[in-house]
Amino acid sequence: MFDNNIKTEPIPERVFELCKLVSKSDIKDSVLRGKMEPKGLNSSSTSYYPAIREVCVQELKLIEKEDDKLKFIGEKKVLKNYNTFRLYCNSIVFKNQDTYFFKIVKSFLESNDKWLKYKTLTDVNIRRDIQEKEDISLVSEQMMLGSRFWVSFLGFGYIQEGAAMFFLPNMHIALRDFCTMSDLEKNKEYSVKEFVEKIYPYASVALQNAMDIKELNLAMSNALRQMHDEKEIVLKKNLDSKEKWRLFCDNTHEFTDEITHIVYKGVRKS
Prior knowledge:
The protein is of the alpha+beta class. The chain is 43% helix and 13% strand. It has helices at 12-24, 29-36, 49-59, 82-92, 100-110, 124-134, 141-153, 172-181, 192-203, 210-213, 218-229; strands at residues 27-28, 63-66, 69-72, 157-161, 165-169, 188-191, 233-236, 245-246, 258-259, 261-264. The strands form 4 sheets. A 3-stranded antiparallel beta sheet has the order 1-3-2. It has a 3-stranded antiparallel beta sheet with strand order 6-10-7. A two-stranded antiparallel ribbon has the order 4-5. The radius of gyration is 20 Å and the shape is globular. It starts with 11 loop residues before the first helix and ends in a 6-residue tail after the last strand.
């Protein structure tokens, strides 16, 4: 799922539930499969269970499979709730920048508002754009549909579905996770460069080339503004500062397009 084989079956809720069930006690794979795919509810000959189990075992490394037995090997605090699970996932899934998953999420974030003119995220123009920019041989509809569940769950924006399917970029939730991982010092004033350097090891998917161009994408800009409004950070524009960073323009906010410093106040616990 988080490599080059992006699927639609292992949605976050299913992955979380499978891990929860195994964390209660060791269980036979065949028994768990029956719990996840009750025969009375799943009349299809296609099974989604193996794909979910693979994410838990191979990618998130929370479960160990030996023959027909499944055992939880992670820390149980990871499964306290969806927030702790999301934080753990955000600490794991972006470590490899060469995967299709990383590149597709990166494309979601770098799209800014450009994709809003299309009525679906599976539009051929969007998929072709990702293929060309990221040197991926084929970006299928399945890859886009599978990615959208996790882009939303991991906190990079909102997927609005109805007559059309749009991505609304705002990585406020993900940025809060990255700040938590980064051990930022409370009440310390960081230059934007220092702030970016602190969170980059975790948030690289959202900050590609940011250090070079000193510009932040729409998802990151919206996140910073929201954290400022919620008093988790204080954005500043010091007029005597030599280095200014550009936000994606928003004329409705007090920080329309430039900042120089960020004071970290602390992320509220979920």
